[in-house]
Design brief:
The chain is of the alpha+beta class. The strands form 4 sheets. The protein has a 6-stranded mixed β-sheet, sandwiched between helices. It is elongated and about 70 Å long.
Length: about 400
């Protein structure tokens, strides 16, 4: 969604915000809250449809108020918008609107700093605090038709960029050089040039290109694959090694073109690779085909992990599954405004799938000395199973 298009879609955007509000209000009630006060970038963007500096206040009666610290950058005809210099002015503004002070107020305790939470707590000294982060996670797990449309557009742009990858490769190229070329075509395709993630253990540039031994380098971050990176300041992904014959090149680059995201991984080879790599890659594809049928509304998320792991055991590939030196304990995650949304597909997640949840599923393997293999797609949950929003060819493709 480009800034120049805001005026054209304002009626649709107001309707869309209304749908999100309808999803949020029951969750506020279920959490026993009177209101939530949102300040994180992702949740402000979600509830306003555009980012601004300030706060979003929603009470259980359905009042939605935008408190803007820099009001001149915000167009909001027909919406409740109040300019403030600091959050300490919010209670007085609520009183002027005839809105009662909340007895229990939800704050984003998982997204804001301790000092930010403490500041807001002092502003509402009589309110009992609750966790709005969990409320918003549940709200954003399912997507509206508007969001699904944007994510499908993301998938189309991401696939268009991936279709050009083979022609970017040159002999004796480093993984960093290839990643730079991929970033260029992503930006030319319309990529926003950033990757919005949740949590302090998720730092990355525009994605990951890993090849050969570097795929076996453990990562301190909560990513499925590691990579040493080019600096201890960002130890993740491409490390500058020359990609060699007999290695795989796993490409997991960002799909954010409009504020929402799709997540897609494909693997290329440089010449012939050992049979084990091909067997593991086909195992990943088999897992996806089975989960596409299994994942229907009402199924617990842990069942997806359990079925994937059972297939891996059947094929004797446990030592390579989701890493080799260090193995990740998940095979996917929710995706949307942030790359890593709820739910995480782990063996302990008892969340039940809901229609219109969006999931990135990524059963991957690391073959020592060769590299990583496997496929990642972004899906939407439907009554008939998973609908693939990134239907790009999945076979291993030779770059030579």
């Amino acid at each position: 969604m480009q800034n120049k298009d805001i005026q054209l879609i304002m009626p649709e955007l107001r309707s869309e915000i209304g749908l999100r509000l309808q999803k949020l209000l029951p969750l506020i009630g279920e959490a026993g809250l009177d209101a939530v006060l949102l300040a994180s970038n992702a949740n402000v963007f979600y509830m306003a449809g555009r980012f601004f500096r300030g706060y979003v206040y929603v009470n259980r009666e359905g009042r939605l108020i935008f408190f803007l610290i820099r009001p001149n950058c915000f167009h909001a005809d027909g919406e409740e918008v109040i300019a403030i210099r600091k959050p300490e002015l919010i209670p007085a503004a609520l009183q002027q609107l005839g809105i009662a002070m909340p007895e229990k107020l939800g704050l984003e305790t998982e997204a804001l700093s301790y000092s930010d939470v403490e500041r807001l707590r002092r502003i509402f000294p009589d309110a009992q605090l609750g966790n709005a982060s969990e409320v918003m996670k549940k709200c954003r797990m399912t997507k509206t038709p508007f969001e699904l449309r944007l994510m499908r557009e993301d998938g189309q742009h991401q696939m268009a960029a991936y279709s050009k990858i083979s022609r970017l490769y040159k002999r004796d190229m480093t993984d960093v050089e290839l990643q730079v070329e991929i970033e260029r075509i992503l930006r030319l395709e319309g990529n926003l040039g950033f990757l919005r993630t949740s949590g302090n253990l998720m730092e990355i540039n525009l994605g990951s290109v890993i090849s050969g031994e570097n795929a076996d380098a453990p990562s301190p971050y909560d990513f499925a694959m590691g990579g040493a990176g080019v600096s201890p300041a960002l130890p993740c992904g491409a490390n500058g090694d020359i990609m060699k014959t007999g290695q795989t090149v796993m490409i997991d680059m960002n799909g954010c073109f409009n504020g929402w995201q799709t997540d897609m991984t494909r693997v290329w080879t440089i010449g012939d690779v050992p049979p084990l790599a091909r067997v593991a890659h086909e195992c990943s594809r088999r897992i996806l085909r089975e989960l596409e049928k299994l994942a229907r509304p009402g199924v617990e998320v842990c069942e997806l992990y359990e079925r994937a792991h059972a297939i891996v055991e059947e094929e004797g590939l446990e030592s390579y599954f989701m890493g080799h030196r260090q193995q990740a304990a998940f095979i996917g995650h929710g995706v949307g405004i942030e790359l890593n949304e709820a739910p995480a597909i782990t063996p302990k997640c008892r969340v039940k799938l809901l229609e219109n949840m969006t999931l990135a599923i990524e059963p991957k393997f690391v073959i020592p000395g060769v590299g990583a293999v496997g496929v990642e797609n972004t899906y939407v949950v439907t009554p008939d199973g998973l609908d693939n929003m990134t239907p790009f060819p999945e076979e291993l493709t030779d770059l030579l």
